[in-house]
Amino acid sequence: MFPGASTYPTVKNRENRRKLVFGWHSKPLTHEKSCNREYRSPADKKKMPPPTVNKRIRISSEAHSARRRAATKSMRLRARIREPAPQLTIRELVAFMQAEVASLRTDLEELRAEFRTEVHTLRHELMVARLERCKNCSESGQSNGGDGADGE
Hints:
The chain is mainly alpha-helical. The protein is elongated. It contains 6 helices and no strands.
């Protein structure tokens, strides 16, 4: 057996493996770059064909930014949910989540009530506007012989 062929992963074995994979002239990888699977040496980037993902899937910048916004929103929500977890016991976490759900329900009920009142006022305004228009139509219809009723 030759010197670098032991079964244990020695530094020399790692260097030989790196040379086989990346080529004899490539520089040794730093720890961060070796942990990153996406990393390729500049020599390998020249050898590798360009990725075809961009050619197959084209998304507009608006869709991309919308996706990014949605992703950051969900990440913020996850972080908000995860925040109290390390300091609390399971019972305290359940109580916290129940309180969060209760506060969200009250917010939802407030929004529903606000929405109902808004819809009610808009319907009332619409009904008043229709009545005024009908009054105008009947007044103009009496004077014009009913021509104003054709508009409805």
